[in-house]
């Protein structure tokens, strides 16, 4: 493994707004918010992955016998945005701080997110080759 990261990613943990179902959250996030982000910043992304958490309730797979109730998940989505380099990330950060862009994103997030629980990490990404046998 190289000591130099292959790429840089932003990993964001998101929780849905109280009163919003997982399905409503997923529909809005994928159909509205993600499209907004892609239109504005997609040219800077290497990839944009939205991982919807399904460990409880009717769509459970990780919880034996569906033992957890709907809504028990700590987060509803784990999003990973990968950039080819730090310059692309810096450009996205710059663009998101422009007053009109910032207001548009915060207003949109207020429609479906509990922003008080949002956590984001900047991560150096090291990619392993697939294991062949």
What's the gist of this structure?
The protein has three helices and four strands, in the order βαββααβ. It is an alpha+beta fold and 133 residues long. The relative contact order is 0.28.
List keywords for this structure.
four-stranded antiparallel beta sheet, 4 strands, 34% helix
Describe this protein's structure.
This protein is α+β, with helices and mostly antiparallel strands and 133 residues long. It has 3 helices and 4 strands. A 4-stranded antiparallel sheet has the order 2-3-1-4. The longest helix is centred in the first third of the chain and has 20 residues, at 22-41. It has helices at residues 22-41, 86-96, 99-112; strands spanning 7-14, 47-52, 77-83, 119-125.
Question: How is the secondary structure organized here?
Answer:
Blueprint: E1 7-14, H1 22-41, E2 47-52, E3 77-83, H2 86-96, H3 99-112, E4 119-125
Antiparallel strand pairs: 1-3, 1-4, 2-3
Helix pairs in contact: 1-3
Summarize the biggest pleated sheet: 4 strands, antiparallel
Query: Care to count the β-strands?
Result: 4
Structural class: alpha+beta
Structure annotation, total helices: 3
Radius of gyration: 17 Å
Overall body shape: globular
| Helix content estimate | 25-40%
Uncertain segments are 62-68
Tell me the span between the first and last alpha carbons.
19 Å
How would you state the average pLDDT, rounded? 87
Q: H/E element string?
A: EHEEHHE
What amount of the residues lies in strands?
15-25%
Q: Strands of the largest sheet, in order across it?
A: 2-3-1-4
